[in-house]
Amino acid sequence: MTGYGLANLPYGVFSTPGTSRRCGVRFGDQVLDLALALSDPVFAQPSLNAFMAQGRPAWTRVRSQVAEVLRSDLAPLHDLSAVSLHLPFEVGDYVDFYASEYHASNVGKIFRPGAQPLTPNWKHLPIGYHGRAGTVIVSGTDIKRPHGQRKLTPDAAPTYGPSVRMDFEAEIGFVIGTGSELGSPLTAADFEEHVFGVCLVNDWSSRDLQSWEYVPLGPFLGKSFATSVSPWIVPLPALSAARIPAPAQDPEPLAYLKDASGTFDLALEISLNGHVIGTPSFTSMYWTPAQMLAHMTVNGASVRTGDFYASGTVSGGTTDQLGCLLELSWGGARPFTLADGTTRTFLEDGDQITISATAPATDGTRLSLGEVKGRLVSS
Amino acid sequence: MTGYGLANLPYGVFSTPGTSRRCGVRFGDQVLDLALALSDPVFAQPSLNAFMAQGRPAWTRVRSQVAEVLRSDLAPLHDLSAVSLHLPFEVGDYVDFYASEYHASNVGKIFRPGAQPLTPNWKHLPIGYHGRAGTVIVSGTDIKRPHGQRKLTPDAAPTYGPSVRMDFEAEIGFVIGTGSELGSPLTAADFEEHVFGVCLVNDWSSRDLQSWEYVPLGPFLGKSFATSVSPWIVPLPALSAARIPAPAQDPEPLAYLKDASGTFDLALEISLNGHVIGTPSFTSMYWTPAQMLAHMTVNGASVRTGDFYASGTVSGGTTDQLGCLLELSWGGARPFTLADGTTRTFLEDGDQITISATAPATDGTRLSLGEVKGRLVSS
Questions:
Q1: Tens digit of each residue's pLDDT (9 = 90 or more) over A5-23
Q2: Contact B96, B310 (CB under 8 A)
């Protein structure tokens, strides 16, 4: 498979039948057994956290060593088809942002018709909230349709039952490698030092649970039942050719939100049961990942190894660039047709969503961020 | 000190100079060294999590063994004054509820004047949101005044600077001992099996950061800089005499929120620099702790050992029963006078907040839930 050459080398956690979970690097359609390859017990652990906690100098050294081992004939490799992939890191805190102006505007129009689509704060700060870390799961895990309180019509009394407006959200996630001290904010310039790598995120959403619960304290059960992440964490150096200037921001952000490092050129693709339904680009995001990190810690909040934050739904300005069904079906008002002739407003039991992404690589090819997939099943 | 007899026996984590953190039980003004007393390495760990994960039968057995050891002359005890107390559990996910009708009504009147104080969903479900687990700290840790974006007047542009409306919130916290499976909701009846114990919580709040950021996705930086918890976790059996029927709820909650177990009679006391400023009672809370657990998991969200959830501000219906300064000063509009003659609207640098609580004990006396204290310092 292309996209997993020496210019990528993403990290994950795998096991083979009868063996315990340990760290690996994907190379083509193979997985390098890191603990064997580098004779380092930090990779014999069932998560990347211990390695991530070692910091940028160790990450740089290991990336060179991995490339060297792979160029030799002695690399301990497993066929990808022979391994199971697991959640690659132990999740500390999970923060979900809301950084696409297109997405936030569309959601505002759908959820709050008649009001200004963007709230007054939106262009002054990257809006975010804490999600549930304990229900972050690896790609491939089935998603049970959640039950809960929802109003089947706006004027009806709330009832208990299965969610009837199930959605996905295509997002990009950023994994914290090294932590910070409580009371010491990070700046946008600290992004490279603290962020280990990037993954794909599906922030599964129940729009009926969410719309009934979210005023005044934000999304809770409409999101907390599951968040899927891709199994391979692409390290930041692999994305150096994908760096692009940040989008124009007006009004100019306050000084603590200044970011000279820019954002990433990541091309996403979303499929429903194998039919492509959206191809958003991360270049359309208003707020940058480094601005999110600076904002998240401006109040002195610390970060820890394994914390991660997601961008919010990646949606662009055209109908082929939308990152969730809420927008694609305009709140359920406009069913759309798949290539197999069936129609959707929200997800049906058995539907599988696959989100993949690619980016320019340092060798002139494109690298793959892999995919995050999941199937909705009845419960 | 009274309140820490055989009818209480709360669990915590302590160290003595030159030794590592380990688990203990408070008895009077002494701390029982559990690993020594019971010769069990589970208590030699720096958090209660491993013990909590063992479940209710182990909790019951250990509580009996501790009482037996304390009745002997051989208990390995340390003077409380000779030990340092630490965060008693490793926090998984932290959820903050909003379960006081008085508090929610007052906040609604202050933050959304002219609108209905309670949002339409409030009496149908216990409103909650996820807080930041990584900034949960033990009582006694100083709180640095957070910086961030706030509007100094409602019509001003947002500026960066120290929060000028610093507040506390007096809450009760519930610590999850044993986890649940993803996709399998818990019921109110599962409360006794999964909840290990109870602590005191100060949900420090920056009202200016919060009011600017919280629409539409809820509180974030206004809360995430610090949440303080008391060092001693009171196990549920110690509170069996504090069990009282749940308050009347109208409308009748949906079936999944039915709770036959009721709530707890906990008397809180809040002091600012040693002057009592509030004495709310947990009996005034609208939603019960078991209802919160059932709601938090109704969508299939799992819980893990070390997760904890807090009740939201405990406020009653009279001015001597308010659990935060936002209510006490009515959003800053009504300065109030302390016994030392100084006045406050919000917290000043150097102010110390101490929240304590007592409850009826099984031996006819009252037991102490200890205290959670913290001092606001400039940053």
A1: 999 999 999 999 999 999 9
A2: yes
Pairing of strands B267-272, A159-162: unpaired
Average pLDDT over residues B206-234: 97
pLDDT at residue A73 in the model: 85
Q: Distance (Å, rounded) from C-alpha B322 to C-alpha B281?
A: 9
Q: How many CB atoms lie within 10 A of CB B141?
A: 14
Flag whether the pTM goes above 0.80.
yes
Is residue B147 flagged as an active site residue? Answer: no
Is any Cβ of chain A less than 8 angstroms from the Cβ of B57?
no
Taking CA atoms, B193 is separated from A134, B58, B174, in Å, by 19, 11, 13
The token duo for A101 is 């102006």
What whole-number distance in Å separates Cα of residue B56 and Cα of residue B65? 14
A133 by Cβ neighbours in 10 Å (0-12 / 13-18 / 19+) ranks as buried
Strand-pair partners of A14: A22, A85
List helix spans (H) across A112-238: 191-194, 207-213, 221-224
pLDDT at B6: 97
Pick from B125, B169, B217, B292 the residue to mutate for testing the A interface (most A CBs within 10 Å): B217
Q: How far is CA A242 from CA A262, A264, A368, B99, in A?
A: 10, 5, 12, 47
Q: Residues B356, B268: contact at Cβ < 8 Å?
A: yes
Put simply, the answer to whether A303 touches B134 (Cβ < 8 Å) is: yes
Q: Cβ contact (<8 Å) for B121 and A307?
A: no
Which residue of B111, B127, B141, B220 to mutate against A (max A Cβ within 10 Å)?
Answer: B220
Rg (CA), chain A: 20
CA A308 to chain centre: 9
Amino acid at B152: L
Which residues are registered as beta bridge partners of A22? A14
Please report, as a single letter, which amino acid is at residue B261. S
Say whether residue B147 is in contact with chain A using an 8 A CB cutoff. Answer: yes
Q: Is there a contact between B147 and A119 if contact means CB atoms under 8 Å apart?
A: no
> What are the C-alpha distances in Å from B329 to residues A119, A261, B72, B166, B343?
28, 44, 51, 12, 10
Mean predicted confidence (pLDDT) in A53-80 = 97
* Spatial contact of B361 and B4, defined as CB atoms under 8 Å apart: no
Instruction: Identify which of B125, B128, B379 has the shortest CB distance to residue A300.
Output: B379
Please, are residues A172 and A198 in contact by the beta-carbon 8 Å criterion?
yes
Q: Does residue A93 belong to the interface with chain B, where contact is any CB pair within 8 Å?
A: yes
Find the CB nearest B92 among A134, A299, A307: A134
Burial A190-204 (b: 16+ CB within 10 A, else e): bbeebbbbbbbbbbb
Among B327, B324, B182, B174, which residue's Cα sits nearest to residue A146? B182
DSSP state of A146: P
Do B311 and B199 form a contact (C-beta atoms < 8 A)?
A: no
The H-or-E segment that residue A312 falls in is none
Whether the Cβ atoms of residue A250 and residue A286 lie closer than 8 Å to each other: no
Q: How high is the ipTM of this complex?
A: 0.97
* Calpha distance A366→A2 (Å, rounded): 8
For CA atoms A226, B99, B365, B24, give the dihedral sign. Answer: positive
Residues of A noted as catalytic: 103
Total beta-carbon pairs less than 8 A apart between chain A and chain B: 191
Reduced to 3 states, what is the DSSP secondary structure of residue B341?
Answer: coil
Set of chain A residues whose Cβ sits within 8 Å of the Cβ of B93: 132-134
Residue-wise over A206-244: b if at least 16 C-beta within 10 A, else e?
Answer: bbbbbbbbbbbbbbbbbbbbbbbbbbbbbbbbbbebbee
C-alpha–C-alpha distance, residues A148 and A142, integer Å:
19
